[in-house]
Design brief:
Largest sheet: none
Structural class: mainly alpha
Order of helices and strands: HHHHHHH
Number of strands: 0
Distance between the termini: 20 Å
Radius of gyration: 25 Å
Strand content: under 5%
Length: 183
């Protein structure tokens, strides 16, 4: 039978163990760069350039006019991919990496969608221009996922260590049934 003393002891030890976990050590970052900063800077850089895509009409939406804009955006994204690929584990930064990534994609893809869906535009000649940009955006996504995944793996390793330590405490408290559940 569970006594209030055993439950209180278990809760105290659990909270103590959780509060004693130290944060993942700060990693040395190249010039203070992190994922969120890189993505936010990329959004700021591509937004005015990508906005030009939404200004095209049937009269001036030619491959010759659109290609330099798309190439400029692709170059900026490629630079961000290079920066992200050189970041160490834990360089996610303060902020929401998911939101920052969504902001990049929104800044680029909304104007591109406006261009492609404009009635009368020859999409057959324009869509292939975006192929390299799509490949580069996929590489950006891959690098962000890699960095976030590595941070999550460190967190999981820390939690596994805590759970392993708690297993002995659970057994000592006579809560063997909890231990049988996989703790």
């Amino acid at each position: 039978m569970f006594s209030l003393t055993k439950i209180a002891t278990f809760a105290t030890l659990t909270l103590g163990a959780l509060s004693s976990v130290t944060a993942v050590p700060a990693v040395e970052r190249r010039q203070g760069t992190d994922v969120v900063t890189v993505l936010d800077n990329l959004t700021s850089a591509v937004t005015p350039i990508a906005a030009q895509l939404a200004t095209f009409s049937v009269d001036n939406a030619t491959a010759g006019a659109i290609t330099p804009i798309v190439n400029q955006i692709t170059g900026l994204v490629s630079d961000a991919v290079s920066t992200l690929s050189s970041l160490p584990v834990g360089a996610v930064g303060n902020g929401n990496a998911t939101q920052s990534l969504a902001n990049v994609f929104t800044a680029i893809l909304e104007p591109a969608n406006t261009l492609i869906t404009t009635p009368g535009i020859d999409t057959a000649s324009i869509v292939p221009i975006f192929t390299q940009l799509g490949i580069t955006l996929a590489a950006l996504l891959q690098n962000v996922v890699r960095l976030v995944q590595e941070v999550l793996q460190v967190v999981v390793a820390i939690l596994q260590g805590l759970i392993t330590g708690l297993s002995g405490i659970v057994n000592n408290l006579g809560l063997g049934a909890l231990s049988a559940l996989g703790l």
